[in-house]
Structures are given as structure tokens and as C-alpha cells.
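To the team - iron/sulfur cluster complex, inputs and output below.
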Amino acid sequence: MEENKKQLPGFIMCVCTGKCPGFAKMDIWDFINQVRVELPVEYGFIHPQLCEEDGDRFLADYLKAGRKVVIGACALNMQKKMFKDAFAEAGLDINKDLIALDIRDMTTDEAVAKVQAVLDEMEA
Ligand code: SF4
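Output:
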């Protein structure tokens, strides 16, 4: 990476096993493809269930790399509760370092716009 290049955040969508009605209004593949191709993120991908034990292990490993992450998933207070061990294990403060978005019950365009808005805020 060039020295002066700004490090972009990674984006993880948690899709709640793929069966949660909360994501029924959007096309999850269109959503993640728009985020990863059109928005200023280093990459974007879908995880099936971040709050399961393996998801926790994945998140703890991922966070240790030190890249900022935006997570699009369920309710913010739930994310805080469920991801706190992974953040703690990576030496991060969940209240400061978690950039969480609730993207349930949204269309693809609405969810993309919500991610864009938080990325704009982070850049400001
Ligand atoms: S973190 Fe939230 S969206 Fe992801 S699987 Fe758990 S409850 Fe569902």
C-alpha cells in the first residue's frame, strides 16, 4: 500500500443465516455488489451468522488485522451485545470502534444509501 493512501474500511454484511425475513425486501447480492464495487470500501463480503461461535472467532481474527470495519446487520444494541467479546479479544473498544448499521427491512437501494451515508460521515 502507498504510504499516503488512506486506508478504507472493510464492509461485512451479516445476513442472519440467509433465512431472516428482515432481509427479504432487498436483494442481498445486488446490495453487496453495489457496496463493494461502487462505494469507498476496501472490500465487502457477506457472513452468514456473525453472532454464532464461529462468527465470533472469525470477527476476532479479522479485527486483529487492524482495519476499520463497518458492519451491516441487525439492531445496534444487539450487535453491541453480540460482538463485544470479539472486539475485546482484538483489544478494541466496542463503543468506539464498532461502526454498526441496522439494514433490516430495507430495499437494496435504501440499504446502499445507508452505507454510503456512514462512509461519508467517516470521511468528513
Ligand atoms: S449478528 Fe444480527 S444479523 Fe447477524 S446473525 Fe446475529 S442476529 Fe442475525
